[in-house]
Write a structure and sequence with these properties.
This protein is of the alpha/beta class. It folds into three domains: 190 residues, Rossmann fold (3-Layer(aba) Sandwich); 201 residues, 3-Layer(aba) Sandwich (Rossmann fold), CATH 3.40.50.620; 183 residues, GMP Synthetase, Chain A, domain 3. 31% of the residues lie in helices and 23% in strands. It contains 16 helices and 26 strands. The strands form five sheets. The protein has a nine-stranded mixed beta sheet with strand order 2-1-3-4-9-8-7-5-6, with helices on both faces. Strands 15, 16, 17, 18, 20, 22, 25 and 26 form an eight-stranded mixed beta sheet that branches. A hairpin with a 2-residue loop joins β25 and β26. α4 packs across α5. It is globular, with a radius of gyration of 26 Å. The two termini are 35 Å apart. 47% of the residues are buried. It binds xanthosine-5'-monophosphate. Xanthosine-5'-monophosphate binds next to α9.
Length: 614
């Protein structure tokens, strides 16, 4: 059920892609209330809006079946801003002409502002670099409009009807690649008589939305102890009353060291009493014992969560037929990677977006109170709800847990080449840098699409420019050599040992490997806290690879990264001293038949790599 809009919010009509959420997030950062609605929302539901922003989208406005907004929104007398597809829709709806562009523009483009007196570009530079991504353009402006900005290949890169306060911009002001984008958006927001966005009013709004969606039902909530699901759980409990919310914490066997105990005590301190803890580690590990492919592992883990939830709810007598629904702490970036918005590619299946859940969502059986938000907003909400600082600022930990940090392979995966010329060119490059492809595959993202390629290892003792070379290679290699999506620097050996890599056992997820990774992860966590670096980083995945230098040998990859929303990320190179201390401690770790005998430091940003290795 679609809830009514908050009075005087700036409404973003979503024409597809990931733009709408980014715009909504940016508008909120500018202090204005914003929300997203489908493009076809009738004008009757938008009467209280303070302004409307029409988002970008991948289609052509003149194609039959392309998304259309209600033209009556243009009669409301409130400011309207169309971006990319939204810009073209304005022209189309108001009597202008849109046609395929002679030169399609993608990427950085310079525009010249020709009407500097128009409010949106007032006092901004006349020549600006902007981010373009379009195949169509406005050939003829609608009556009443004038050209505001042009690029070499796009005459109407921006247009305005100042009297009616309707504006159109071909480029994407919502991305950081348009340096003055936020300034332009700020000027538009300034034209709107909008409600102020504050965490308090936002929490109240989300609470009201939850009430409408849940009605008189009750919620069975999957909690992981991370900030997203804890915020969602707290919000549901406060809004609906604790008796109508039952939490379930599933111990998958893929949690971090001592995590279950820590979550239990944190939630107890929060006075969220309705928490059931189910140890399902045997079931998860049993189902994963033959899974090697990352997407298969993700599917098994996501499905097993649902099976455990069903078993527990049956046992506790909480049935969907009796008015129980499923709650999840999904946030916006989780949905985009799974291709959850109309036009996004499928990068990874997030555990809360597997098929079984998608079917329940269609049937209206799932409530996800924070699914429109980015992590920064969930954290603000967490602070507002009074959650402890440590919990709110914990590093994100993925739902599938160590399951996507334990890489699986029975035997070495060889590098393959499409032809002899590529092979010769790549091998010459590898020889020049004494670089070694690691014999496993890892997930990356390039041009918004998924890749599954080898990591490339470099060694400081044989690389012509040592560590600095490794960083430079991390930038250039994934673009130049399609066999590799990441570059890692070996921190345990300054040159590749003469012995070949050794694979031991099944190479799949086992409790032993999970235990060894748990120890390694705990060492890294403690060292980062001791070094005072915990708060400087977004997240620090520690990954185990199924090979080493001797029988039972395993390798560890350190992946500290900086990010603001996990959509893009930069690797954070650690200082030599810290890196060596961590490496030496890791090399001493043993568990059962396994021990760590190689350590690597991943230096690749996202894109082209993803944050997690799978
Ligand atoms: P990637 O690795 O795709 O991850 O750059 C982006 C962010 O999402 C987290 N992540 C997940 N979170 N369920 C989650 O709740 C999942 O299935 C999942 N997969 C990745 C990841 O840790 C990073 O913060």
């Amino acid at each position: 059920m679609e809830a009514g809009i908050h009075p005087k919010s700036i409404v973003i009509l979503d024409f597809g892609g990931q733009y709408a959420h980014l715009i909504a997030n940016r508008v909120r950062r500018l202090g204005a209330f914003s929300e997203i609605r489908p493009p076809e929302t009738p004008v009757s539901q938008l009467k209280d809006a303070a302004g409307i922003i029409l988002s970008g989208g991948p289609q052509s406005v003149y194609e039959t079946g392309s998304p259309q907004a209600d033209p009556a929104i243009l009669q409301l007398g409130i400011p309207v801003l169309g971006l990319c597809y939204g810009h073209q829709w304005l022209a189309h709806a108001l009597g202008g002409t849109v046609k395929p562009a002679i030169v399609k523009e993608y990427g950085h483009t310079d525009v010249t502002v020709v009407a500097t007196d128009t409010p949106l570009f007032h006092k901004l530079p006349e020549c600006q670099s902007v981010w373009m991504s379009h195949g169509d353009e406005i050939a003829v402006l609608p009556p009443g409009f004038r050209t505001v900005a042009s690029s070499a290949d796009c005459a109407n890169a921006a247009m305005a009807d100042d009297a009616r306060r309707i504006y159109g911009i071909q480029f994407h002001i919502e991305v950081t690649h348009t340096p003055h984008g936020m300034e332009i958006l700020k000027r538009f927001v300034g034209l709107c008589d909008h409600a102020a966005w504050s965490v308090e009013s936002f929490a109240a709004h989300v609470g009201a939305d939850v009430k409408t969606r849940v009605g008189d039902r009750k919620v069975f909530m999957l909690v992981s102890g991370g900030v997203d699901s804890t915020v969602a759980f707290t919000l549901l409990s406060e809004t609906l009353g604790p008796d109508r919310v039952q939490g379930l914490l599933v111990d998958t066997g893929l949690m971090r060291k001592d995590e279950v105990r820590q979550i239990q005590s944190a939630l107890a301190r929060l006075k969220l009493p309705n928490l059931h803890v189910e140890d399902a580690s045997l079931l998860f590990l049993d189902r994963l014992q033959h899974a090697y492919d990352p997407e298969e592992k993700r599917r098994i883990i996501g499905d097993t969560f649902i099976d455990v939830q069903r078993t527990v709810s049956e046992r506790m007598g909480l049935r969907m037929e009796d008015g129980w629904m499923l709650g999840q702490g999904t946030i916006y970036p989780d949905t985009i990677e799974t291709g959850g918005t109309k036009h996004a590619d499928h990068i990874k299946t997030h555990h809360n977006r597997v098929e079984a859940i998608a079917r329940m969502i269609e049937r209206g059986l799932v409530i996800e109170p924070v699914k429109e938000l980015y992590k920064d907003e969930v954290r603000m909400l967490g602070e507002e709800l009074g959650l402890p600082h440590d919990l709110v600022w914990r590093h994100p930990f993925p739902g599938p847990g160590l399951g996507v940090r334990i890489l699986c392979a029975k035997e070495p995966v060889p590098v393959t080449y499409p032809d002899d010329a590529t092979k010769a060119k790549t091998e010459a490059f590898l020889a020049e840098h004494a670089a070694i492809p690691l014999p496993v595959l890892t997930v990356g993202v390039q041009g918004d699409g998924r890749t599954y390629r080898h990591p490339l290892a470099v060694f400081s003792g044989t690389s012509p420019a040592g560590n600095a070379d490794a960083l430079a290679l991390a930038r250039s290699v994934p673009n130049a050599y399609r066999q590799f999506s990441r570059v890692v620097l070996c921190t345990s050996h300054d040159r590749m040992p003469a012995t070949p890599f050794v694979f031991t056992g099944s190479g799949a997820i086992t409790r032993e490997r999970a235990d060894l990774l748990r120890e390694a992860d705990a060492v890294v966590d403690a060292e980062m806290r001791a070094a005072g670096l915990y708060n400087d980083i977004w997240q620090f995945p520690v990954v185990i690879l199924p090979f080493g230098l001797a029988i039972g040998g395993q390798s560890i990859v350190l992946r500290p990264i900086r990010s603001t929303d996990a959509m893009t990320a930069d690797a954070l190179p650690l200082g030599d001293e810290l890196l060596q201390r961590i490496t030496q401690r890791l090399l001493g770790l043993k568990h059962g038949d396994f021990s760590i005998d190689m350590v690597f430091h991943d230096l690749t940003s996202k894109p082209p790599a993803t944050i997690e290795w799978e």
